[in-house]
Amino acid sequence: MKMKKQFKYILGVSVCALLTTTSCKRSLLDPIPQTSITDATAFDTPDRILNQVRSIYQAMKNGNFYGGRYVVYGDIRADDFLNETSNNVTGYDVYNLNPTNSSQNTVKNLWSQAYFTINMANLFIDGMAEKGTSVVGQTLANNYIGEARLIRALSYYSLLQYYARPYADGNGSKPGLPLRLTGIKGPGFSDLARSTVGEVYTQILADLDFAEANLPLTHGSALLNTTRAHRNTAIALKTRVLLSMRRYADVITQANKIVSANAPFTATTGVAHALQADITNVFKPPYTTTESIFSMPMSTTAGDNPGTQNQLGFYWYMNGSTPGSSEYRLNPAGILSNANWGAADRRRTSLVYTNAGNGKMFVSKWTTGSPYTDYVPVIRYSEVLLNLAEAIARTTSGVDARALALLNAVRQRSDPSVTLAPADNAALIDAIMLERRIEFLGEGLRNNDIMRLLLNIPAKGTAPSKTPADVGYIWPISSDELSLNKLMTDN
């Protein structure tokens, strides 16, 4: 039993999970069926290698990770949502800022799935070095490895947002994560001390730099350009990572690669990213707009959607004909109450649903019923524009014209009647931060913004506030990791 538990929580399950497109359900001691792909043959053909790449994406879009719960947690920690069900299975402990080391559905499952995804990426990278590159050639091999390294980078970044102190607290010197960079195929490799936050960020940026240099400019179709990483995906994610490190000049350098100097802002190389004229297009089929830099695709096929109690629509949405569970409604005292979010804004009129029976309001970006096949956005072009606007504002004085133009591009796309005109630099930064809350409501970015700026986590309902010095500002480490990794320390 200990071996099985170790594989599940620390090693990312066994290697057979990488070598097939479904989860491994047999003991490693069982005979391998003749139809299985073994470790020795997994990299023998181009088709098998491509299936390995797909399996890494499949791990990332699991409901416990980027298929749903990771995104949900990023919003319910803050003050724009109120809990409706008091259900710890669906994050009530996260909402109350009191999860424990042994919180199975939150602390343990997110840690487990993120490290499972990391191990999948590591096993693939190792397999390409051993055999795969000779099968598909160096160029295609580097494309594939770039995808694996981008997913590994995003997984480590995601873990940092919950389980480690923000970079700004000590300039990256605080305990970060066990930095596992080689694949684990069996027991005996659990012990690994935490690298610092700064060391983990350094590896994240190294992975994204490799991805930028080696990913294709385009995958040739709107679907693949949305659901598989390309060069601009790596650049876009670097703007997010660097913003979390408060490296604002570097945010500007990266964003300028895919944002034109003047409006209308577009990416002039690689995939031609641009804002959608109508924001609702981003959240409805086919989900493959020019704004959708990277999304997790879902379908009705069994195992190809987030699964029970993981889906964004399940958490956020309530409608009489196609209901979600409505685990969380919008807080009337949160962003809804801000006078600077106008009544005519398309994000309010079309992406917020008001229940006629009780007047409660819900996010309606994800509205399909069970099994909830709406794509989950990982990063959109509007985020890159606002990342750039904020970085410019924080490195200049006064009201920078380009930063303001970027801000108004996002606002006026949804509310053409408004032209934002902040009076000074502080007001410009405030307006950008407000725009982020409105634009990405329900998309999980609120926690990132609070953490990177060392802000207090606001109170909401009966849930308390937390200062950066309070217990609960970040999560404890999974009890499974603490049990199996003798070098691990808790937060």
Structure summary:
The protein is mainly alpha-helical and 491 residues long. 43% of the residues lie in helices and 6% in strands.
Question: What descriptors fit this protein?
Answer:
491 residues, Serine Threonine Protein Phosphatase 5, Tetratricopeptide repeat, two-stranded antiparallel sheet, 18 helices, 8 strands, disordered N terminus
Q: Structural class of the secondary elements?
A: mainly alpha
**Which fold name is given in CATH as the topology of the largest domain?**
Serine Threonine Protein Phosphatase 5, Tetratricopeptide repeat
Quick one: biggest sheet? 2 strands, antiparallel
CATH hierarchy, class of the largest domain: Mainly Alpha
Helix count, DSSP H or I runs of 4 or more residues: 18
Radius of gyration, taken over Cα atoms and rounded to an integer in Å: 22 Å
Order of SSEs:
HHHHEHHHEEHHHHEHEHEEEHHHHH
* N-C termini distance: 27 Å
With strands numbered from the N-terminus, the spatial order across the biggest sheet is 1-5
Unreliable spans are: 1-36
Number of strands: 8
CATH architecture classification name of the largest domain: Alpha Horseshoe
Mean pLDDT: 91
Helix content: 40-55%
The best one-word shape is globular
Query: Approximately how much beta-strand content do the residues carry?
Result: 5-15%
Q: How many domains make up the coordinates?
A: 2
